[in-house]
Amino acid sequence: MLAALATAVDDADPLAGLAVRDVPVPAPPPGWARVRLRAASLNHHDLWTLRGVGVRPGQLPLVLGTDGAGVDDDGREVLVHAVVTSPGWAGEETQDPGRSLLSERHPGTLAEEVWAPARNLVPLPEGLSAVEAACLPTAWLTAYRMLFTRSGAAPGSTVLVQGAGGGVSTALVALGAAAGYRVWVTSRSPAKRERALALGAAAAFEPGARLPERVDAVMESVGEATWEHSVRSLRPGGTVVVCGATSGEA
Ligand SMILES: NC(=O)c1ccc[n+]([C@@H]2O[C@H](COP(=O)([O-])OP(=O)(O)OC[C@H]3O[C@@H](n4cnc5c(N)ncnc54)[C@H](OP(=O)(O)O)[C@@H]3O)[C@@H](O)[C@H]2O)c1
Predict the structure, then answer these.
(1) Which of 79, 175, 221 to mutate to test the pocket of ligand 1 (most atoms within 8 A of CB)?
(2) Among the four 57, 182, 214, 239, which has the fewest Cβ within 10 Å?
(3) Domain around 170
(4) Is there a single domain that holds both residue 22 and residue 120?
């Protein structure tokens, strides 16, 4: 099958290790199901992989791609949930120390076919194309969990999203606005601030700007560059939800 691979890693020149070529179809573990992909989305994770983040010696070449949608062997249209838990793990999957994302230990979705645990195949939501659904699993599910499981916010709450141009942040803005939250964003880029407003943000600020009032919750994925502002912008008793630290740990 044709696939996009990381054949080498290079922090300074990540695309040097990217190759598109035929690879053998992987042998699936028991209980896994095949999906013939119609669409796969890029995630910054793919670039981190090509830079060598999380790649163990002897693992290359590996098939990239965490997210996708397609058709399973029963003809069902499905999206592929990217989190693979340890064999036998029965608890909350984010707590599994042995969990991985597709492409980390098993071939990913930037290919004609992917294998995933059968429980990871989710019927395509009505009204979504395969292209739209292929964007949902990792970034949008992360954003969903941050907003609706972890933040304590409710419709009408003011939620600050740091680094509005990011993949997770884009999903936070769209989902938060759809749920009736007042979403404020920061971004270094005027064009990305405009884009966030078009996606439903109520206001957009430069990084570090003094806000009109303190917010109920902050969505943090940037880390060191925005952490101090996040804490300063929060009302007493508010919540900071952290899913990563792109600019370094605070
Ligand atoms: N993508 C996922 O599916 C996913 C899932 C779970 C966790 N995470 C974690 O979430 C974090 C973000 O992931 P992502 O894929 O959304 O990343 P991304 O698309 O690369 O976006 C990162 C954003 O961070 C902001 N940023 C980066 N460096 C900055 C700096 N020095 N100063 C200020 N802002 C800076 C930028 O916002 P502006 O350009 O708008 O300022 C940028 O758009 C990562 O730590 C990742 O591990 C990601």
Answers:
(1) 221
(2) 57
(3) 139-242
(4) yes
187 lines ligand 1 (CB under 6 A): yes
Give per-residue pLDDT as tens, 40-81: 999 999 999 999 999 988 999 999 999 999 999 999 999 999
The whole-number pLDDT of residue 145 equals: 97
Question: Domain check: are 16 and 101 in the same one?
Answer: yes
CA distance 210 to 228: 12
Q: Exposed, middle or buried by CB within 10 Å (0-12, 13-18, 19+), for 40?
A: buried
Contact 199, 175 (CB under 8 A): no
N-term to C-term CA, the chain: 43
Domain count, the chain: 2
Q: Which amino acid is at 72?
A: D
Q: Whose CA is nearest to atom 33 of ligand 1?
A: 225
User: How far is 166 from 168, CA to CA, in rounded Å?
Assistant: 6
* Residues in the chain, overall count: 250
Return d(Cα 55, Cα 39) in angstroms, integer: 25
Closest CA to 241 of 168, 189, 190, 179: 168
Q: Which residues of the chain have pLDDT under 50?
A: none
